[in-house]
Amino acid sequence: MLTGLHCAIRATAKRQLCSYTCSAATEAPPSEEVKAPTPPPPAEPTSEPLELSVEDVNDTSVTIQWRPPATISSVGLDGYIVECCKEGTGDWKAINEELTVSCRYVIKNQTIGDRLNIRVVAVNAGGRSPPSTLPDAVLVREVVDRPKIRLPRFLRQRYVRKVGEKVNLVIPFSGKPQPVVTWTKDGQPVDTKRVNVRSTDKDSIFFIRGAERADSGVYEMCVKVDSFEDKVQITLQIIELPGPPASVKIVDCWGFNVALEWTEPRDNGNTTITGYTVQKAEKKTGDWFTVLEHYHRLNATVSDLIMGNTYSFRVFTENKCGISPEATVTKASATIQKTGIVYKPPEYKEHDFSEAPKFTTSMPDRCTTVGYSTKLLCSVRGFPKPRIQWMKNQMIIGDDPKYRQINNQGICSLEIRKPGNFDGGVYSCRAINELGEAIVTCKLEVKQPVTSDADKK
User: Fold this and answer.
1) Residue ranges per domain, the chain?
2) Distance between CA atoms of residues 280 and 304, nearest Å
3) Superfamily of domain 355-447
4) Mean pLDDT of the chain
């Protein structure tokens, strides 16, 4: 049943399609002739790979690298083929069975001593590109370590030695097979008459028996294994004592002072000048005495010279090695002239000690008991010496025998002997001199003694 139904559906569809096709053929106008499509351009290969070079070589393999071609056609780039042949033969063989898309390739399973010509070809649908070939054959050799110099820390800056001293430098390095070591000075081979260089498989010894200033310069050490190398530079500075100043002269002389000026030395000992030493000598004795050390300027004033003496002066130069062996002496000498001196004693003005009375302490209020003597104290200053008056309730006490008045070096005291109930009140001390007066007061309270009940009975 399903088969008959399918046949009926196909027949109906075919009739409808024929009907549609006939109607379309009767209604559509005649069309133009259809042109054939333009065939695509033929596929073209790429240009050759760029900058083919050797990255590494060891005893079993050669590693190469390159850059993609500059021109790649519309069909793109499928990969690269690496080809080799032994030097002296033209038997090029592909190393990689399948195309490689990487721009780096390791050619393995090689034999030590073989010299290989290597080229790389780019491949796409258009075919092979022109090959990019190494200009020289590559020697398969044992290179375990690239050359490396281990420069000691103290040689990474300027190395300074004195004239006559030994220069003995040991500089270790590494590399395999044994590197070739070369030394140059300022770009030229070292003078073997001056410098002794001895190299082992681990270090290089640079030796100068007695250094001279001409040995100063920039030395370069190069360690090379085939096309690989490492370089370091060592700056050697040989110094010595400087020469004396070019000239020293006296430019002025006044009072007990002499002004000097000098110029820098013609020979600084191949290093910077660190200072100068200035000395003086009396004409009578001829003994030299240092007046300035480690002095940095080119002029100085020498002071505290003795009147009537004649002086000469000399200047030494200093650098890192020390003081110059010789000094430059002034051609002229300086005489400190005697001058008449009139002694004028200092004038002293008599100090005026006059002062109005002034109490320096106050009298605090006091409290005492009937029958117990008490004392009031205060202190006063003034010049001329003040006259002291004691008062009770603003009445001058005078020579009352109940009271004892004392004035000792400005300490004033009033003793009240066995005070009674009527001795309380306001006491004052007055100080008087010709410049004025001062007064200080206090209150004295006299209390009855405390009695117990037994005493009352």
Assistant:
1) 50-139, 145-239, 248-335, 355-447
2) 12
3) Immunoglobulins (2.60.40.10)
4) 86
Is 251 exposed, middle or buried (CB count within 10 Å of its CB: 0-12, 13-18, 19+)?
exposed
| Residue 378 pLDDT greater than 90, yes or no | yes
Q: What pLDDT shows up at residue 4?
A: 41
Distance CA 304, CA 333 (A): 16
Token output for 174: 């590494």
Report which residue type is found at 152.
Answer: P
The answer to whether the predicted template modeling score (pTM) of the entire model surpasses 0.85 is no
Determine the topology of domain 145-239 in CATH.
Immunoglobulin-like (2.60.40)
Q: How far apart are CA 173 and CA 199, in angstroms?
A: 10
Domains 248-335 and 355-447 share a fold: yes
Report the C-alpha gap between 44 and 75 in whole angstroms: 8
**How far is residue 365's CA from residue 246's CA, in Å, rounded to a whole number?**
88
**Cα dihedral: 77, 79, 85, 88 (round 10):** 20
Q: How many C-beta atoms surround the C-beta of residue 403 within 10 A?
A: 18
Strands 275-282 and 228-239, bridge-based pairing = unpaired
Does 177 sit behind a cis peptide bond, omega within 30 degrees of 0 on the bond before it? Answer: yes
Q: How far apart are CA 290 and CA 278, in angstroms?
A: 6
Is the preceding omega at residue 386 within 30 degrees of 0, hence cis?
no
Can you give the pLDDT at residue 324?
A: 94
Burial of 242 per CB tally in 10 Å (0-12, 13-18, 19+)? buried
State pLDDT tens for residues 109-131.
888 888 899 999 999 988 899 99
Exposed, middle or buried: residue 134 (CB in 10 Å: 0-12, 13-18, 19+)? middle
The top-scoring range by mean pLDDT among 140-154, 201-215, 343-357 is 201-215
Q: Which tokens is 154 given?
A: 């103290």
Q: Residue 423 is encoded by which pair of tokens?
A: 């001795």
Backbone angles phi, psi at 213, to 5 degrees: -60, -30
Task: Report d(CA 210, CA 207) in Å as an integer.
Answer: 9
Nearest to 365 by CA among 448, 445, 285: 445
Report DSSP state, residue 103.
S
CATH, domain range 50-139: 2.60.40.10
> 166-170 long-range contacts, Cβ below 8 Å, gap at least 24?
166/207, 166/208, 166/209, 166/210, 166/211, 167/206, 167/207, 167/208, 167/211, 167/215, 167/236, 168/205, 168/206, 168/207, 168/208, 169/205, 169/206, 169/207, 169/234, 170/203, 170/204, 170/205, 170/206
- Residue 18, pLDDT above cutoff 60: no
